[in-house]
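Marked as duplicate of an earlier ticket. Keeping the data here for the record.
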Amino acid sequence: MKALNEKVAKLDKSALPSVLHIDKVADQIQVIANGSQDLSLSGVTNPAADKTGEWWRTVDFEQLLVWNPDIIIIPAYATDLNPKDFFNNPVLASLKAVKEKRVYKQPIFARTPDAPEIFLTSEWLAAVALGPILLPPSRSRSSPTTSSFTAPN
């Protein structure tokens, strides 16, 4: 994590990509607003974050369009949601993340938000959001399936 922190610290904070973690899409959308993961470690921002401290926020489609995230992450525990649900939804088609095919399912190694493996999630998110230059050396120690973690489904 120290190497990742050093790389992220050199980035222009005003140019960091916005990331929304979305775990439900229906009439309303449920996003992780104030989760336990420090997203700044991955070099991203969360437009849903606020000072309430509430973990989730339920928003409508209009709010999602206002935020217009660069990247959408679907948590691993959201087993009934996948990137194709976003790509095939005409209401969401104008979102930057959808247009650019930057909707990802989080790897199973982080099944719950407070998993001990959360450091892997930080590294994975940095690599997805900012590219391979931020891939940590631990990537080479991962299983061959890690290449699928950075490709949209």
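See parent ticket for discussion. The radius of gyration is 15 Å.
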